[in-house]
């Protein structure tokens, strides 16, 4: 993220181009991983375009402006389904963002999509009856851990530089160990 910020500031990279690379990489590699369960290409490209204009004008909203991220599916993103990996919520589309998502949007973060996790976040691996199992980017036959396995896998696979997950009982910590990644 630090490198993207520096490249945006110097004009070497543009948030629109970066987001397009994210979507290209997801299209190429995620069919084997199943980490991103909902994409938001139209909105992401619009947010990236607005971010590019702010960077060009020298007025980014924050250090995160234009940074692409994925969001774990249990966090509410207004207008995007939040299914919790459960048939009980299969048609749930919240109208408003949860507080952390709202803060990310205000900072200019580009939300690329939502990531897979076990039903109701109840397991230490990433699989559910609606979206299936998420594979580990180093070996798709192995688990990425969980319950934030989809979020961590989306970063480890190079789809996005950062993802938002949750950690109520080791959900990020278990998943990040599978990749040697950092979890905050």
TrEMBL record:
Gene3D superfamilies: Amidase signature (AS) domain (3.90.1300.10). GO terms for molecular function: catalytic activity. Residues 17-173 form the Amidase domain. It comes from the Bacteria. Coiled coil: none annotated. PANTHER family: GLUTAMYL-TRNA(GLN) AMIDOTRANSFERASE SUBUNIT A, MITOCHONDRIAL, TRANSAMIDASE. Belongs to the amidase family. This is Amidase. It comes from Lichenifustis flavocetrariae.
